[in-house]
Amino acid sequence: MKIAGFVDGEGTITSPYGECRLRLCENGTGAWTPVRDVAFAIRSDMSLAEVKTVVREAARQLEDCRIVVSAEARGLVPVVFQEELGFHTWKSQGALQDQLDGIAAREAELAKASAPQPPLEMGAGCRGGCGGGRRQKAFDPAPAVPLSSLERTGESRYRIDLVDTLKRDPDLNSRMVLLPLLEAGAFDELEILCDHVPRWFSGAIEAMPLRAECQAAERGVRVLVFPES
Questions:
Q1: Which residue ranges form the domains of the chain, and what is each CATH number?
Q2: Rounded mean pLDDT of the chain?
Q3: Model confidence over 128-174: pLDDT tens digits?
């Protein structure tokens, strides 16, 4: 496994918006070893395109690493890493070397939560009937999704406010919250309220037996997800 972290001169996890570098670490022999430091500098006068160029060039030098940790989970840098480049982004503090095992363990938990679920069984007495194959299992969200964030709006219908969920827990990101819900698939309608549609979302929907409709909403976008009929 490889993990990269934004660090200061002392090797402490820091924000990507100050004086920092990206340190790539690898655990190939049971111990974490620094591989290289990648230069990284974001100035306040940079345009959006310039910031993206810096992030993409840094990502290119991280080889096959797709995990980045920093002390700041907000702003354009984590968004580009996560939404455009497909990285998992984590927020942490302290010496990078001391946090790597914990981040690796959380990655393993996320992978387990996102693993494909077995087919949902029909309720007792149903044999291809009972509402044309309607799901009979209650929605059981993955551990990454706070139960308080998921609102039941009807039978097999749910709503989640992604903006509010991410504000309440900055350690989460859109992929961590939504992907387990989509993969579980135990709904007839899932309503997602967000300020924008994540870049990874369309590809994920296309790879699943799901379809989505996007509508303008008062605070951004309202996305309705349904099983393919």
A1: 2-111 (3.30.420.130), 135-227 (no CATH)
A2: 80
A3: 333 333 343 444 444 455 556 778 888 888 899 998 888 887 777 88
Tokens 């790597």 locate to: 100
User: What is the sign of the dihedral through the CA atoms of 61, 3, 71 and 173?
Assistant: positive
* pTM score: 0.55
Gap between the Cα atoms of 87 and 107, Å rounded: 12
CA 172-173-174 angle, 5° bins: 135
How far is residue 106's CA from residue 224's CA, in Å, rounded to a whole number?
A: 29
12: tokens are 């402490």
Residue 149 tokens, joined: 């964030």
Q: What is the distance between the alpha carbons of residues 16 and 83, in angstroms, rounded to a whole number?
A: 17
Q: What is the pLDDT of residue 94?
A: 94
Distance CA 205, CA 28 (A): 34
